[in-house]
Amino acid sequence: MSDNWPTNDTMKFPNYRILYFVPNIIGYVRIILLVASWIHIDSDPKLFVVLYVASVVLDALDGIAARKLNQTSAFGAWFDVVIDNVGRGMLWSFIYKWGYFVSALEWLVLVCTHTYGPTWKTAGTDTPPFWVKAVMANNFRTVIGSYAIAGLHVLPMWLYGLQKLEIIYTWLGSQAVAGITAILVSGRLICALVE
C-alpha cells in the first residue's frame, strides 16, 4: 500500500447520526413533496403549487430547526442547497425550453462554493465586490438580499403560475403582472451577478 493512502488509524469515519438530525429529516420530507409535486406539475397545477409551497415552507423551517436544536452540519447545509436546486431546476426546466441553463448556473455555483468549504463566502478574493457584500450582508437579511432571494426562489414559481393559473391575470391585471415579473427578473439578475 502506498504511503499516501490513509489507514484506519488516520481516517475519520463519518458520523451517520447526522442523517437523522431533525433538519435532515425535514429535507427528506421536502424531497417527497418535490416528487409528489413533479407528478402533478402538468396535470393539476393547484395541487402542484400546494405541494411545492409546502416544500418551500419546510425549507425555511429546516434552518431554524438546525440552529435551535444545535444540529447544524456540513452535510445538512449541502443537502439543503441540493434540494433547493432540484426543486428550482424542476420548475425552470418545465416552464422554459432553455430553463435548464438557469439550473445549470445554480448547480455550478454549488459545486464551486462547495470546493471552498466553510470559507466559501470569503474564498477567492480578499474583498468581494460591493454588490456581493450588500446582497450577502446579515445573511441576506437586508432589502437587497431579500430582493435577490425573492428573484431566486419566487421567480420560477411565479412564471409557472403565469403559465398554468389564469386566475393570476384576473386578480392582478396585465400591468401588475408585468411589473411583478420585472421586479422578480431583476432580483434574479442581481442574484446571478452575485453567483
TrEMBL record:
PROSITE patterns per UniProt: CDP_ALCOHOL_P_TRANSF
Membrane topology classification: Multi-pass membrane protein
Gene3D superfamilies: 1.20.120.1760
A GO MF term: phosphotransferase activity, for other substituted phosphate groups
Main location: membrane
Example of a GO biological process term: phospholipid biosynthetic process
Keyword Cytoplasm: no
Subcellular location as annotated: Membrane
InterPro entries: CDP-OH_P_trans (IPR000462), CDP-OH_PTrfase_TM_dom (IPR043130), CDP_ALCOHOL_P_TRANSF_CS (IPR048254)
Record protein name field: CDP-diacylglycerol--inositol 3-phosphatidyltransferase
Source organism: Paramuricea clavata
